[in-house]
Design a protein that fits this description.
This protein is an all-alpha fold and about 160 residues long. The protein has a single domain, classed as Up-down Bundle (Multidrug efflux transporter AcrB transmembrane fold), CATH 1.20.1640. The chain has six helices and no strands. It has helices spanning about 1-15, 15-25, 25-40, 45-75, 80-110, 120-160. Helix 1 (about 1-15) packs across helix 2 (about 15-25), helix 4 packs parallel to helix 6 (about 120-160) and helix 5 (about 80-110) runs antiparallel to helix 6. The protein starts with a helix and ends with a helix.
């Protein structure tokens, strides 16, 4: 599953580096999933694992939105740091709106407000915890990784006489 997503991103971005940067957001979600389940007193169950799968799509989408905007600014000739700062500030609102709508949508299920919802409460808890953590970490960690990988590629091009 993850490999298929990576290969689609490689075809989309025509690069191995940028999809790698995007996919680094996937492990970040597990911080929030673990914290959410722990705080709510839920266990890692099949519904929670389904929530993790659902969450992966949202997290990857947020990273794509951010990386794509950075690449657009770079193509326009903007320097790396300015492109990253502008991308985070411009894409902050859409990314946060997605995260907050996901949390708001899952809250009634997580709070077990309906009969029978206790079975799927771990799904909602995993999604809520994962979305909150991954969104915040995506806005910080993904730009840093992008900067490190882009500078490393630029440095190797400059020092390589070929």
């Amino acid at each position: 599953g993850i490999l298929a997503v990576y290969l689609v991103l490689v075809a989309q971005f025509r690069s191995f580096k940028h999809p790698f940067t995007i996919m680094t957001a996937v492990p970040l979600q597990f911080v929030g999933v673990a914290a959410g389940l722990l705080v709510a007193g839920k266990y890692l169950s099949m519904p929670a694992m389904l929530g993790i799968i659902l969450l992966t799509g949202t997290v990857v989408n947020n990273s794509i939105i951010l990386i794509d905007y950075i690449l657009q600014r770079r193509e326009e000739g903007m320097d790396l740091t300015s492109a990253i700062v502008e991308s985070v500030s411009v894409r902050y609102r859409p990314i946060m709106m997605t995260a907050l709508s996901d949390v708001a949508g899952m809250l009634p299920l997580a709070m077990e407000m309906a009969v029978g919802s206790e079975r799927f409460s771990p799904l909602a808890t995993a999604v809520i915890g994962g979305v909150l953590a991954a969104t915040l970490l995506t806005l910080v960690v993904i730009p840093v990784i992008f900067m490190l990988l882009d500078r490393r590629a630029h440095t190797s091009c400059v020092t390589d006489p070929k």
